[in-house]
Write a structure and sequence with these properties.
Layout: H1 6-25, H2 33-57, H3 65-84, H4 90-106, H5 117-120, H6 124-159, H7 172-202, H8 206-212
Helix pairs in contact: 1-2, 1-4, 2-3, 3-4, 3-6, 6-7
Length: about 210
């Protein structure tokens, strides 16, 4: 069963998180090599789980709550990796990995099946709706993390009491810029996701529309 992949993901990211917070405590701006290796290993294990799950079920792996949260966590981690190409911030890594580890830990206690969802996902419109919505949630989540970092650094700049950890944050202008871009990207993804969801409902036979509502 592919779900045995979930526990190692939590372990890999938990170890990476320990390295990241230790680097942040020491005032380092970049993650150490062990933190990178454990993070990438966990992300690859996530992709493997999603691929194997999708192959065995014959659909996109967003049919259960555990799959949705895993897909969102994987998307959040992937979005962070893209953002990290621009701003190599160990502080951002700490917040991002903490969030993804928390989400992934939740999946260990969730049901492995969701009756009725497989039938709904048989439509390509439903699959697109689910995938775009989850990607939008990931973008909003990372934007929220940047907002927290922005508020913390702005407050400490105003009080002139910067801590060693806050000093490793990206500049507030950069945080504001990427926060806005992620919110805009999430808004577009979520809007398109809603539209595809409406299209899916309109294509259902009248007898089945009441079930989906």
């Amino acid at each position: 069963m592919q779900h045995w992949f979930l526990s190692p993901i939590v372990i890999f990211w938990g170890v990476s998180l320990c390295f990241c917070w230790n680097d942040l405590r020491l005032g380092r701006r970049d993650k150490s090599l062990p933190a990178w290796l454990f993070f990438l290993t966990g992300w690859i294990a996530q992709f493997t789980f999603l691929y194997m799950r999708g192959t065995s079920m014959g659909r996109c792996p967003v049919g259960t709550l555990a799959e949705v949260i895993t897909f969102m966590s994987w998307s959040l981690a992937g979005t962070y990796l893209i953002l990290n190409l621009v701003y190599r911030s160990n502080a951002l890594a700490c917040y991002a990995i903490t969030t993804t580890t928390f989400f992934q830990t939740l999946t260990l206690f969730l049901p492995r099946s969701s009756p009725g969802v497989e039938k709904w996902l048989s439509s390509s419109w439903a699959t697109i709706h689910a995938v775009l919505s989850v990607l939008a949630y990931a973008a909003f989540c990372l934007a929220a993390l940047l907002a927290v970092m922005y508020l913390l650094k702005e407050r400490q700049l105003k009080t002139h009491h910067l801590t060693s950890g806050t000093m490793t944050y990206p500049a507030v202008t950069n945080l504001e810029l990427w926060m806005g871009r992620l919110v805009f990207a999430g808004f577009i993804l979520f809007t398109v996701g809603l539209i595809t969801g409406f299209i899916r409902l309109e294509n259902l036979p009248p007898a089945e529309r009441q079930y989906d509502y």
